[in-house]
């Protein structure tokens, strides 16, 4: 089977379901899924365990060379050789990731890694700046969003499933804070690329969103392969 030649860039706000949707599409279309938010989360985690104040840009940039990111043979993200798994999914890490992602040296480090990974094509990559900065020449660009209340509701239900204690109001507040930080930062703010196709998943369930995105990808690339 021939591996797809094209790259797919999927951007959008926190909680729009990008990662679960992209994972499912990657499996169906034989693409490699790259979760760029996980890189910022891993660096944020490295800062937290080293007691670096994430609001202090100089301190973060100073500590950055001590945060080495790579992947093991099973494509698991590592920080300084350690697989982090769900440690980077905690709410304090989410906010810290959004904070350190504002700093250009942090972005330069992550973007170089992401561009290298996608250099041979065949990737579906999700984040905030993929279509605008990381892969401006991606063959397919999608901006996946949903109402803020709907995104908070989904995150809240996920937390309940994972037995993470929180209230809906807290989750909504977190999502709004991250939206604010991610869209108003100076470097590479979250914005829809001019040539990206907008998909609002507020009223779509998981399967309908996957089907919609696959249809867009196949229409744009002429890739008729569909593996179940
Ligand atoms: O996608 P996520 O929620 O795992 O991302 C965590 C944070 O990382 C997000 O709030 C903003 C930042 N991020 C970014 O600035 N650029 C990306 N390409 C991906 C994530």
Describe the structure.
The structure is a single chain. This protein is α/β, with parallel strands linked by helices and 228 residues long. The chain has a single domain, classed as Rossmann fold (3-Layer(aba) Sandwich), CATH 3.40.50. Helices cover 48% and strands 14% of the residues. The protein has helices at residues 18-29, 36-49, 57-63, 91-100, 104-117, 130-134, 148-161, 168-184, 206-221; strands spanning 8-11, 32-35, 69-71, 77-79, 82-83, 123-127, 140-145, 197-200. The chain has a five-stranded parallel β-sheet. The chain has a three-stranded antiparallel β-sheet with strand order 3-4-5, with helices on one face. Bound molecules: 2'-deoxycytidine-5'-monophosphate. Residues 14, 36-37, 40-41, 94, 97-98, 101, 127-130, 178, 182 line the site of 2'-deoxycytidine-5'-monophosphate.
Q: What is the string of SSEs from the N terminus onward? A: EHEHHEEEHHEHEHHEH
| CATH fold title | Rossmann fold
Number of strands: 8
Regarding quaternary structure, what we see is single chain
Spatially, the strands of the biggest sheet line up as 2-6-1-7-8
Quote the beta fraction.
Answer: 5-15%
Low-confidence stretches: none
What is the alpha-carbon Rg in Å? Answer: 17 Å
Instruction: Assign the CATH superfamily.
Output: P-loop containing nucleotide triphosphate hydrolases
Based on Cα principal axes, name the global outline: globular
């Amino acid at each position: 089977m021939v591996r797809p030649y094209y790259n797919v860039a999927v951007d959008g706000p926190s909680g729009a379901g990008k990662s679960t949707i992209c994972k499912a599409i990657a499996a169906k279309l034989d693409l490699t899924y790259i979760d760029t938010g996980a890189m910022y989360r891993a660096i944020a985690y490295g800062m937290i365990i080293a007691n670096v104040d994430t609001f202090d840009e100089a301190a973060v940039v100073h500590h950055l060379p001590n945060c080495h990111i790579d992947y093991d043979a099973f494509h698991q993200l590592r920080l300084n050789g350690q697989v982090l798994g769900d440690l980077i999914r905690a709410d304090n890490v989410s906010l810290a990731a959004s904070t350190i992602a504002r700093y250009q040296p942090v972005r330069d480090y992550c973007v170089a890694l992401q561009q290298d990974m996608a250099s041979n094509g065949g990737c579906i990559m999700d984040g905030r700046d993929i279509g605008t900065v990381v892969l401006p020449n991606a063959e397919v660009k999608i901006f996946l969003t949903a109402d803020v209340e709907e995104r908070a509701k989904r995150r809240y239900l996920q937390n309940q499933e994972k037995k993470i204690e929180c209230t809906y109001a807290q989750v909504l507040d977190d999502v709004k804070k991250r939206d604010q930080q991610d869209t108003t930062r100076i470097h590479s703010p979250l914005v829809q690329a001019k040539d990206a196709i907008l998909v609002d998943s507020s009223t779509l369930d998981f399967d309908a969103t996957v089907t919609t995105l696959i249809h867009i990808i196949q229409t744009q690339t002429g890739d008729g392969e569909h593996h179940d």
